[in-house]
């Protein structure tokens, strides 16, 4: 019997499909901007990235694929 690599994991594909079709409610854009400004003021690059993308998502930008 030949081993298959990579091992297929159907649960991963199911989780990705479920995540694509679910939407998480976001806070108002004004609150996200406040948090983005705070993250940039303290030099938090990860926070700046997260809040910048959340603002784009809340504003209705199409997702990158």
TrEMBL record:
Protein origin, superkingdom: Bacteria
The name this protein goes by in its record: Uncharacterized protein
Source species: Streptantibioticus rubrisoli
Taxonomic lineage of the native organism: Bacteria, Bacillati, Actinomycetota, Actinomycetes, Kitasatosporales
């Amino acid at each position: 019997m030949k081993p298959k690599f990579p091992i297929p994991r159907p649960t991963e594909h199911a989780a990705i499909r479920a995540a694509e079709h679910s939407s998480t409610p976001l806070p108002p854009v004004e609150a996200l901007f406040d948090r983005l400004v705070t993250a940039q003021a303290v030099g938090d690059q990860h926070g700046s990235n997260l809040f910048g993308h959340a603002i784009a998502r809340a504003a209705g930008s199409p997702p990158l694929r």
